[in-house]
Write a structure and sequence with these properties.
The chain has helices at residues 2-5, 16-27, 43-49, 60-65, 76-88, 107-114, 148-156, 170-178, 180-197, 202-223, 227-234, 240-250, 253-271; strands at residues 9-12, 36-39, 55-57, 69-72, 97-100, 119-124, 134-140, 160-164. With 272 residues, the chain is of the alpha/beta class. Strands 3-2-1-4-5-6-7-8 form an eight-stranded mixed beta sheet, sandwiched between helices.
């Protein structure tokens, strides 16, 4: 984190993900609050935020001018417009590193809006970043310099795991890891409802379901074993698990989830 601590950071758009990034950098990344600033859309939003340990304003241009790296956390429909306005106002003349988390908006579009020599990295985090268990992917644009992608990774790393991939994969990443938490919440809800159906108190059923999902995911990540192998260890001959798995296969659970990822990736490709 030494390079990060020497970099003045600005976050344009302190929404859910913007605040999560700021919180992660301060609490888990060891960033000094004096090295961080952020913006919101208007005074009403500023008042709703309350007191924060870092500087917050409604002035995107001033924040960008004072920053060596700028996290663009505005909605996909607005990110190019915001960057173009910053460029018009001369707020990007010092060529800060721009890290965009806007789904479906390619680095080429942001580079074009920012002007010649723009240094752009595209990142795709997900909402579990809020609790330090996120999954994020970063992709370099055409103008990045030595150390830029490493700095972008350092910005995201305190929030969970980070992978570096070619930008051509970003819509697929959005469909799987960015949209994926919503799919898992539905699964947790369904599992807990099943527990209620067989007599468990609702609160107990929800805790059992959520911890089971967490534990299973941790087993996959920490053992490095294929989910199918781990599944087989739970599935004894003529047991209750194999009986249940057959029912899930009858309901085409695998296909429905895979198609969900495919559809989310398709929609992500249209956002830009």
């Amino acid at each position: 984190m030494s390079a990060l601590n020497k970099t003045q950071l600005g976050i344009i758009g302190l929404g859910t993900m913007g605040r999560a990034l700021a919180q992660g950098l301060l609490e888990r990344g060891g960033l000094d609050p004096t090295g961080l600033s952020g913006t919101v859309r208007n005074q009403a939003s500023l008042e709703r935020l309350g007191e924060l340990p870092y500087a917050v304003s409604c002035d995107n241009a001033a924040t960008a001018r004072a920053s060596e790296a700028v996290l663009l956390c505005v909605k996909p429909a607005h990110v190019v417009e915001v960057v173009a306005k910053l460029a018009t106002e001369g707020a990007l003349d010092h060529k800060p590193l721009l890290v965009s988390i806007a789904a479906g908006v390619g680095t080429a579009a942001i580079e074009s809006a920012a002007g010649a020599g723009a240094r752009v990295v595209r990142a795709m985090p997900n909402t579990p970043c809020l609790v330090g268990c996120g999954m994020s992917v970063v992709s370099p644009g055409s103008g990045v310099q030595v150390g830029d992608i490493e700095l972008a990774e350092a910005l995201i790393a305190p929030l969970g795991r980070v992978l570096r991939l070619d930008e051509s994969h970003m819509d697929a990443v959005t469909g799987l890891s960015a949209s994926g938490p919503a799919f898992i919440y539905v699964i947790i809800e369904a599992l807990s409802e099943g527990g209620v159906m067989v007599g468990l108190p609702r609160k107990v059923a929800l805790e059992l379901a959520a911890q089971t999902v967490l534990g299973a995911a941790t087993m996959v990540l920490e053992t490095g074993r294929h989910p199918a192998a781990l599944k087989d260890e739970v599935t004894t001959p003529a047991g209750c698990t194999i009986s249940a798995l057959m029912a899930l296969e009858d309901g085409k659970l695998r296909s429905v989830l895979a198609r969900g990822v495919q559809e989310a990736a398709r929609a992500a490709g249209e956002l830009g």
